[in-house]
Please model this.
Amino acid sequence: MVKRASRIILSATSIALLLLLLSCNKKDKIDTDPALSLSFSTDTIFFDTIFTTIGSVTKRLLVYNNNDNKINVSSIQLAGGPNSFYKMNIDGISSHSASNIEIPAHDSLFIFIRVTIDPNSQNTPLIVSDSLVFNTNGNVQDVQLVAWGQDANFYKDETLGGNIIWDSLKPHVIYGFVRVDTGASLTLQEGTKVYLHKNAYLSVSSQASLKITGVLNHPVRFQGDRLDPFYRDLPGQWDGIYLEKGSVQNEINYAIIKNGSFGILIDTINSPNIPALKIDNTIIQNMTGTGISAYASSIVSTNCVIGNCGSAALELVFGGSYDFRHLTIGNYWSASARISPSVYISDFTYDQNFTMVMNPLTKAYFGNCIIYGSEDDEIRLDSAGTIPFNFAFDHVLLKTEADISTDLRYIECIRNEDPVFVDVANYNFSIDSISPAIKKGIPVGILFDINGVERGQTPDLGAYQYIKR
Model:
């Protein structure tokens, strides 16, 4: 009887040990399911220290295996390889790559990432980006790495209050967004350079103002943060400048805004007597979308140039009040098909129920302008027909298929004659010696052109006065 009991106890013990071994074996089994994935403590690691000497900062990443079985990460590597500014450390080993790293079930792995940057090197990108790439059973995942590169003023998802001034002593680099808060103002002094990372933007909120105070020889510049030659004229590198609904007394003088998704987007007018935007002597070019897009707003503009946009160079939607003098539009976009004319004007939009909503176009005046491009018709006037739609093209060289000969709103216009720009391929929209735009304007109160050249009593059309070479 004692022996039988002993055998029963031994059998029960054996079964328990067997179950324990099976359980352990299950946890030790490496799961090869390609649907498995890792989890991370963050999707982006920012090294936001502003270096004043050679910088070396270390941060930590936790990699989680939340699965029921052990997994094998076949490779972990820096996408930039040996040339990366970054290094990673796993189990005390510093390298640019590692392989066959096992993580037990419901366990984690520590990775330490280090970046070394000389901020005084002008060859270093403004923003140094890389990524850690993980391959698990063929499933590829990554974690972004971002560090500030040169000695500059950096902004990441910041809201600015008060009266802020940006000077030209250091570049200003935006990652994510900068928003001028309600009631605040942002002034950019002459020569200031603003670089924006991919998808970054500058916005100005209600009752806030943007003041850009460039001068002829020291304009304020907006462009992407990639400075290598390949990106010099590559559009779509950043978003654009938003002047939100109710922003007030925005002023731009001598700015160069290029290579974004759009140049300026401006929303509804705040005051019927004060323009929402006064923009002078400014070049906007090489946008994947629009150069200037206005929604029921008001703009007063002189000596501006809008060149090569994937959509309309100038889009005035849902009415408003606009005054453009000595504007040059040269739209020869070739990176993709362009279905929008260079100038689009409407007095309506559609609400969320797709019901047409109208707003009067109280004024759209174009004086001494050039509107030209590669499409057959570069102007579209889109009116609902039941409210005021007031426009005038006064001494304008324009490209259109419309018959303007009997329309009194076209005053001494030149139709479908090539303005003969100096160098379209290199965005030089000044006029050549044989241009039909020479001495075809009338005095409209603009005494000097965008380059400070005196216009005289018979000015040329567009932003540039012809200078004999």
